[in-house]
């Protein structure tokens, strides 16, 4: 048997760690690795048109599967293009291994063509970023990188010069068993005892949930029932906690709705469960707060804490719920449920007022129809900006759907690349990219990736020819909108020219039929929906001081848009409110 080179050993180890695809763009320094993939039946090279897409795709794949995914870029500019998508994956705790191939090892530090220092450049968006400068570092260095990505949840980067990749690999005797799953972590007994005492002493408890509640829906519901606690959520907690939730009081933040803000401020104990919600202006400063999180560095960095509990949400609640004293008084819970229903009723008009006849089409209407027609197990990828608003308000989670976006990093142009990675995990599972025209055009070249790989992603394009979220920020700050208008083509015609299904929708009555046709089409499809750029109705009390990036620092000030079927969800919860 011929001796392996470093590239072959590298690829074999990725396969052993469960990696099935390597997303990237070929380049000379990557050639030994790409050739090794060509000859390995356990892994595929997924050619994309831009390395940023490769990183976003890998991050989405990792979020869908919960397993390690990988991407690669050639030396210098090639791997630098990975950086934005890697930031997003890292901040989303998606386990991703990035291969940054490098210039010849003998030229490092001498100003060679395309020279950068990737082992340094990626340190801020990774748990581990190191250079293989000698074949004898393999396979230990790659094993270490893999276990950082999986064990800590995030990105590892390995820089590999092309000449090193082509050299003979050392013997494999140094390999050891790979860790490919994360353990459950419960808090210490002392923390649990203090947590229980704090809960028992409180009269009004509210739970605020983030993505750390993934896999803990049943435990959170049991905990809320025992405490008679309202349950609010951040955007990243929506898919995990909103469905089948009779304690739901909505979402807090700029995209918020319902009574989540009131519930978090009118309690006497707020429990933050698996959330790194960044907008501390929406969190109270005059109630007791306990936080449960698997990542200790996140404890207390958003708000003052009275108790920090280090552990994953599911294991912590399994320890705590049976021991806390059950509360019988529902007055606080019922009052918050009633406020939530009333708040939703107050904004439902923006959605119900003749939107099925409005031209240009209301984006709320598009999101609502999409929610009704999409599969029960669909994966939605969401562009940053106004698409976040429509997803937050109109997509109905059910425990089977997935909702993925750049919710922590806030990058434009994420939805199409993330849909690529999500669709590769299961070609038969409906994957829908909710794109804004600004985000879509930024990475539009990778629509061709859908065609090339015959990926049946359905792109639903909210085309208002504007960067609407930026316009909103300017408006709130008292600045005239400037530089926010897009001159767009007929995107459906572009899709058809590329060899995909494409249909343009300009009237509401065309929408349902166009979406059904796209969903029935077996290959990639694009539905170009011309939407109203003036769809948002802004409350008059917003001041410039209330805007901080993507957040408003006022309590009840949210976008006055509709909330789709969430009003029905709130009404159903009112069955729990005793009638006089």
TrEMBL record:
Q: Name one Pfam family in it.
A: TPP_enzyme_N
Recorded GO MF terms? magnesium ion binding; oxidoreductase activity; thiamine pyrophosphate binding
Q: Start and end of every Thiamine pyrophosphate enzyme TPP-binding domain?
A: 383-529
Show where the Thiamine pyrophosphate enzyme central domain sits: 192-318
UniProt keyword annotation of Oxidoreductase present: yes
Q: Which residues form the Thiamine pyrophosphate enzyme N-terminal TPP-binding domain?
A: 5-120
Instruction: List the protein's name.
Output: Pyruvate dehydrogenase
């Amino acid at each position: 048997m011929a001796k392996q080179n470093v590239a072959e050993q590298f690829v074999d180890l990725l396969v052993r760690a469960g990696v099935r695809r390597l997303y990237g763009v070929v380049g000379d320094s990557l050639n030994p690795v790409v050739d090794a993939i060509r000859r390995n039946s356990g892994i595929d090279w997924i050619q994309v048109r831009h390395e940023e897409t490769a990183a976003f795709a890998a991050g989405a794949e990792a979020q869908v599967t919960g397993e390690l995914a990988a991407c690669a870029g050639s030396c210098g500019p090639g791997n630098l293009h990975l950086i934005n998508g890697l930031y997003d994956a890292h901040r989303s705790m998606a386990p991703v291994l990035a291969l940054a191939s490098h210039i010849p090892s003998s030229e490092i530090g001498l100003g060679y063509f395309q020279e950068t220092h990737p082992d340094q450049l990626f340190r801020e968006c990774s748990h581990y970023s190191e250079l293989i400068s000698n074949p004898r570092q393999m396979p230990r260095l790659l094993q270490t990188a893999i276990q950082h990505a999986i064990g800590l949840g995030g990105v590892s980067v390995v820089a590999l010069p092309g000449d090193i990749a082509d050299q003979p690999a050392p013997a494999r005797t140094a390999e050891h068993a790979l860790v490919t799953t994360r353990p459950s972590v419960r808090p210490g007994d002392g923390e649990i005892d203090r947590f229980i005492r704090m809960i028992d002493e409180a009269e009004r408890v509210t739970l605020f949930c983030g993505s750390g509640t993934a896999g803990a829906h049943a435990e959170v519901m049991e905990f809320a029932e025992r405490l008679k606690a309202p349950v609010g959520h951040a955007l990243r907690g929506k898919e995990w906690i909103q469905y089948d939730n009779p304690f739901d009081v909505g979402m807090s933040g700029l995209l918020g709705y319902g009574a989540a803000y009131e519930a978090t401020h009118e309690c006497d104990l707020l429990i933050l469960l698996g959330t790194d919600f960044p907008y501390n202006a929406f969190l109270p400063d005059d109630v007791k707060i306990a936080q449960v999180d698997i990542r200790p560095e996140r404890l207390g960095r958003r708000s003052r804490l009275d108790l920090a509990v280090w552990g994953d949400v599911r294991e912590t609640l399994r320890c705590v719920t049976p021991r806390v004293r059950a509360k019988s008084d529902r007055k606080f819970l019922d009052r918050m449920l009633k406020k939530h229903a009333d708040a939703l009723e107050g904004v439902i008009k923006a959605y119900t007022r003749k939107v099925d006849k409005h031209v240009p089409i209301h984006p709320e209407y598009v999101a609502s129809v999409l929610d009704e027609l999409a599969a029960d197990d669909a994966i939605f990828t969401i562009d940053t900006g106004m698409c976040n608003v429509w997803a937050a308000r109109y997509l109905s989670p059910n425990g089977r759907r997935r909702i993925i976006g750049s919710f922590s990093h806030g990058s434009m142009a994420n939805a199409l690349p993330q849909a690529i990675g999500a669709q590769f995990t299961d070609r038969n599972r409906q994957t829908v990219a909710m794109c804004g025209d600004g985000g879509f055009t930024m990475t539009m070249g990778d629509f061709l990736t859908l065609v090339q790989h015959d990926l049946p992603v359905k792109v639903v394009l909210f085309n208002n020819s504007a960067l609407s979220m930026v316009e909103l920020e300017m408006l709130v700050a008292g600045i005239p909108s400037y530089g926010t208008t897009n001159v767009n083509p007929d995107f459906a015609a572009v899709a058809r020219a590329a060899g995909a299904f494409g249909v343009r929708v300009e009237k509401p009555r065309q929408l349902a039929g166009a979406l059904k046709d796209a969903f029935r089409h077996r290959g990639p499809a694009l539905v170009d929906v011309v939407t109203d750029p003036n769809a948002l109705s802004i409350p008059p009390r917003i001041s410039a001081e209330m805007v901080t990036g993507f957040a408003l620092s006022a309590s009840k000030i949210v976008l006055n848009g509709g909330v789709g079927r969430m009003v029905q969800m709130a009404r159903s919860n009112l069955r729990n409110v005793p009638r006089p």
